[in-house]
Amino acid sequence: MQYVTETGLVVTDERHHRAGDPRSWPDNGNVQPPPPVGAGPTTSEGYGNTHVMYPETVGAPPVQAWSGWPVEWATPTWGEAAGGLAGIINRVSTVFGAIDLNASILSTMPPYRLQGSQVIEATAWMRNPQPEVYTGWTEAMKQVVISYFNGEAFLWATSRYADGTVRSWVMLNPAWVEIDLHGQVRRYTMCGIDITADVLHLRYSSWPGDGHGHGPLEALAYNLFGAAALERYQSGLAIRGGIPWGVLTAPGNLSAEQATMLRDNFVRARMSSMGAPAVMSGGVTLSPFTVTPKDMALLELRQFDEARIATLLGVPPTLLGLPTGEGSLVYQNVSSIHDFHWRAYLRPKAATIMEAISNWALPSTQRVELNRDEYVRPAFAERVAGWSTLFAIHDEETGERAITIDEIRTAERLNGVVSETTVVAR
Questions:
Q1: In a shared domain, residues 214 and 144
Q2: CA distance 110 to 234
Q3: pTM for the full model?
Q4: Range of the domain at 33
Q5: 347-378, pLDDT tens digit by residue?
Q6: pLDDT tens, position by position, 282-324
Q7: Within this chain, do residues 87 and 44 fall inside the same structural domain, yes or no?
Q8: CA 30, CA 13: separation in Å to the nearest integer?
Q9: What strands lie across the sheet with 111-115, from one edge to the other?
Q10: Same domain, 95 and 63
């Protein structure tokens, strides 16, 4: 028996005169696989039908027939593999806020060079690693810290002194660098050129057998998806007109025109009633919503995700304006938070980055560190008490004081001239 389906498929039904398992019957040549499901009534085969679950860093597909993305209707995030952190920062504001805060603080801490315990003159790259590229140390260091929090950063020596130490350097886009792992030894190439001898690979976290560095954003994947979704949800909620405060209920079924007229008439009546009570008739009732805008916006869930993101990125949530339930902050709280931020989060990162740069760019007897004094500097009254204590300490044999008045004035910038080699409270 043969019949034709609605789609034009000719079907031969041989169940009446064939025995055995129908799956063993030979193909009659008319049976074709059903068309893929897509956005329209008719679709063509395409990349979206064979790549249902695409990875986060998928590249742009080849030009061919397209049937849409079964995963979601949002455009895939092509190019983020090359752009690195840009896509994540642009989607989740808390990520940008946390990383930008850390990078801004560390990049504005002046670097200084030490030989033993003696502060010596700064090198040229400590003022500007590459004048043709950067406006100064701050811009270059901020790029390094941002890339470092994404998992890894690459510094490339563009020139050296006669003794082999680094004279200038630039930071490379991590997407430009290819890593070839030989055992646990890494080889680096860029555009097919071996740059191993001139590159410094800063890794946030590493593991034997893995050539790349990994940052906290990988552990925050689910929180990032949740925060991004809630940001889109809340913006969409506002764009679509916000949350209605109540609903008018009428008996029977109303057409769209009748429902619109009922709503508009109610609004006009309330606007002209000058606060008088509303009068409902014909079985119409007004029922206020019990769900508040705060509950509708899932505010507490968003705050949890954003607080978790801030914490793993090394920023106390309070510094990003996220609620903590501790009430208002006074000066002592803020001072303690800054000190905790430095000790628990920024100091380990600063020590790791500057140790690696020192071992790469300076002789083995020298190192470069960051002066964190401006960030955790106590109030003026506390500094005066500290200077007084140090000034009172003196050597009984030589009479030399622990600190002189001129050094105190220089440290407090009261002389009008600031010494490049003066470092306070390392």
A1: yes
A2: 41
A3: 0.62
A4: 1-78
A5: 999 999 999 999 999 999 999 999 888 788 77
A6: 778 877 766 555 555 566 777 777 888 888 888 988 888 877 6
A7: no
A8: 12
A9: 118-120, 111-115, 366-370
A10: no
- Neighbour-count burial for 80-113, b at 16+ CB within 10 Å, e otherwise: beebbbebbbebbebbbbbbebbbebbbebbbbb
- Phi, psi dihedral angles at 305 (to 5 degrees): -60, -45
**Is residue 143 situated within a structural domain?**
yes
Task: Give 122-140 pLDDT, tens digit per residue.
Answer: 999 999 999 999 999 999 9
Strands (E), 103-262: 111-115, 118-120, 152-160, 166-172, 177-182, 185-190, 193-194, 199-203, 246-249
* Within a domain: 53: yes
User: Tokens 């209707």 — which residue?
Assistant: 73
Locate 158 and state its tokens: 């563009």
| 122 contacts 254 by C-beta, under 8 angstroms | no
pLDDT of residue 426: 41
Structurally, the chain folds into a number of domains equal to 2
Are 17 and 109 members of one domain? no
Among 219, 239, 273, identify where a domain stops.
219
Q: Domain boundary at 78, 100, 116, which?
A: 78
On whether the CB atoms of residues 245 and 291 are closer than 8 A, the answer is no
Is residue 278 included in any domain, yes or no? no
Q: Same domain for 116 and 69?
A: no
- Contact call for residues 224 and 88 (beta carbons, < 8 A): yes
Least confident window among 69-78, 164-173, 387-396, 401-410: 69-78
In a domain, 242, yes or no: no
Q: Would you state the pLDDT for residue 411?
A: 78
22 and 97 in a single domain? The answer is no
